[in-house]
Amino acid sequence: MDREQFEQLVREALDDLPEEFATRLDNVEVVIEDEPGPGLLRSLGLNPRTHTLFGLYQGVPLSQRGGTHGGTLPDKISIFYRPLLRACVTPDRIRAEVRKTVIHEIGHFFGLDDRAIRALGY
Description:
Number of domains: 1
Oligomer: single chain
Largest sheet: 3 strands, mixed
Structural class: alpha+beta
Number of helices: 6
């Protein structure tokens, strides 16, 4: 799968979000990156030789924002292209994993931790 097709899968995952969630994604940038760098992985307590990421949310979750939050740079959701392609063999599997990853990272934006997101199936 080429990058353009992959980007389309990310757009579709975002377009499929229920409106009550999609409308709250103000000031959030969703970007597609090739790989998480080794420094990023180490900063998250991961070993770059044995771990990777499919996605990453960086920002202040909605649940932690106070009344003074504003005028800030956008939060960022990174979706990592190459790790997803390496892990998924078929286009259908890539599509499913991209959707799951996008929803997982949006869950972090809304303040859910990994445990709560996994309990929801993402």
